[in-house]
Amino acid sequence: MLNKEAIKEEITRKSIYVDNSNDHLGENFIEVTLGDSVKVYDAPFLSITNSTPTKEIIIPDEGLILKPNELYIGRTLEFTKTYGFVPLLAGTEELAAVGMEIHVTAGFGDNGFEGTWTLEIVCNNPTRVYKNMPIGRVYYYPLIGDDKNKYRGKYFGQVEPTASRLYTEYEQKQKVLVKSDVNK
């Protein structure tokens, strides 16, 4: 894992970029903050094979109280870029102590990713959150092996809170199946 001095060096080399990173450097991480809105799914059930509608909630200046057992799709305020490293987004001990998680399972990023981080926020107790509040930390691990393959997948360049795009993989499979049926 990179320490503070190594992160500074990589920022200078432009292999790591995080908006306002010099203001948020820790001993071995860069602190990231919560964007100004969250989304919730707006459907009776979630679909894996189709896009599920969402509803956006703007976080007011006085904060937004998150409800237990609700999944909130948020984002970091900071736009990030990482080349030659594997970034890891983690919550803070302070948020864990109030029973809040900022990602369900998707903590690792990809070499070459550019965008804001999606946050899958859940809490055990009603919890008030604020836009621009510290929400997590990004740690960097050296990428071992070929770093020429840069991430350019379905979440590349995202800026808004981004709901699951898993359905696009099923759309691609369906197109392949239809094409193979036509060729018979």
Explained architecture:
There is one protein chain. The strands form four sheets. A four-stranded antiparallel sheet has the order 1-6-9-8. Helices cover about 15% and strands about 35% of the residues. By secondary structure, it is of the alpha+beta class.
Secondary structure layout plus pairing:
Layout: H1 4-13, E1 16-18, E2 30-33, E3 37-41, E4 54-58, E5 64-66, E6 72-82, E7 85-90, H2 93-97, E8 100-101, E9 114-123, E10 127-129, E11 134-142, H3 167-182
Antiparallel strand pairs: 1-6, 2-11, 3-4, 5-10, 6-9, 7-11, 8-9
For the structure shown, list the relevant keywords.
184 residues, four-stranded antiparallel beta sheet, 33% strand, 17% helix, alpha+beta, single chain, 11 strands
Order of strands, main sheet, comes to: 1-6-9-8
Count the DSSP helices: 3
Strand portion: 25-35%
* Helix content estimate: 10-25%
Category by helix and strand content: alpha+beta
Describe what is shown at a glance.
The chain has about 180 residues and is of the alpha+beta class.
